[in-house]
Amino acid sequence: MKLTVLRLILLSAAFLIAPLTRTEASTKPDLPPRVAQGQTINLSDHLVKGKITIVDFTSDYCPPCRAVSPKLDELHQRRDDVAVVKVDINRPDVRKIDWQSPVAKQFALRSIPHFKIFDGEGKLISEGNEARDTVYGWLKR
Asked: Which of 18, 37, 45, 93 is most buried by a 10 A CB count?
């Protein structure tokens, strides 16, 4: 009886702890996930192993961001070797581009959309203007 109770306690603890441990993604979702909502994040938690991952820092209050968003969704769906992750810089209660959000400050963002491109092993290969040019080039194909 005591052994059964102990097993149940350990099993319950495992389920409670599991969401707190980092898991590396190996498949990409159908649509790009939208993460952060203004809070600091660890980008490596959102990279897709084995895929080029484009991290798009964005805001619903940014006209250029809204314009490129459907094209990034299409790129994410069209190319098996590319995954897109959208980092929303806005906190839920801010109704303009949230330059003061924790994630905007974390990455010292001065303009958006802002891109970072990581290879399939999680190494940063491009960011800023260079990454923007690369992403826009892929969008034209």
From this structure: 37
pTM comes to 0.81
Contact (CB, 8 A) for 58 and 115? no
Question: How many structural domains comprise the chain?
Answer: 1
**Full pLDDT tens readout for the chain, 141 residues:** 554 444 444 444 443 433 333 334 557 888 999 999 999 999 999 999 999 999 999 999 999 999 999 999 999 999 999 999 999 999 999 999 999 999 999 999 999 999 999 999 999 999 999 999 999 999 998
Name the residue range of residue 110's domain.
27-140
**Closest listed residue to residue 48, CA positions, set 66, 25, 72, 70:** 25
Sheet holding 124-127, edge to edge: 34-35, 82-88, 52-58, 114-118, 124-127
| DSSP code of residue 25 | B
